[in-house]
C-alpha cells in the first residue's frame, strides 16, 4: 500500500512508485487531471494515464464523483488488476480542506464469497 502526494509541477512515476510489485494499492493527491477520471486533461494526467494503460493497473475512483469541492478529481486510487476484485472505493465527508475523504475497502479472504461491510 502506498499513499503519496505529487506537486502539480511534477510528473508522477507509477512504475517507480510500485517498484514492479504485482499487487499494490496506491492512493494519493496526484494532481494529475484526466477525462478518464472526470477532469479536464493536463500534461501530468495524460502522462499518468499512459503509465496506467501500459501497466496492469486500474483507477477505481468513480469518474462521476469529484474528490475536491471545486469539482475536480485530484485524489486517485490505483490498484493492480490482480488486487482489483478485493477493493472498492467510496467517499466519506469533506475534510478541513478542499478535498473530500476517500474510503478504500479491502476484502480479505475469498473476494467472491466474503461480504463487505461498508459502515
Characterise the protein shown here.
This protein is an alpha+beta fold and 119 residues long. The chain has a domain at 24-106: Deoxyribonuclease I, Chain A, CATH 3.60.10.10. Helix content is 14%, strand content 28%. The chain has helices spanning 14-18, 43-54; strands at residues 2-5, 25-29, 57-59, 75-80, 87-94, 100-106. The strands form two sheets. Strands 1-2-4-3 form a four-stranded mixed beta sheet, with no helix packed on it. Strands 5-6 form a two-stranded antiparallel ribbon. α1 (14-18) links the parallel β1 (2-5) and β2 (25-29). The chain is globular and about 35 Å long.
Strand/helix succession: EHEHEEEE
The oligomerization state is single chain
Number of strands: 6
Low-pLDDT residue intervals, each spanning 5 or more residues: none
CATH class categorisation of the domain at 24-106: Alpha Beta
Biggest sheet layout: 4 strands, mixed
CATH topology title of the domain at 24-106: Deoxyribonuclease I, Chain A
Reported CATH architecture of the domain at 24-106: 4-Layer Sandwich
Q: What best-fitting shape do the alpha-carbon axes yield?
A: globular
Task: Tell me the distance between the termini.
Answer: 22 Å
Provide the structure class.
alpha+beta
Cα-atom radius of gyration: 14 Å
The average pLDDT value, as a whole number, equals 82
How many helical stretches? 2
Name of the CATH homologous superfamily of the domain at 24-106: Endonuclease/exonuclease/phosphatase
Q: Please give the order of strands in the largest beta sheet.
A: 1-2-4-3
Beta strand %: 25-35%
- As a percent range, the share of helical residues equals 10-25%
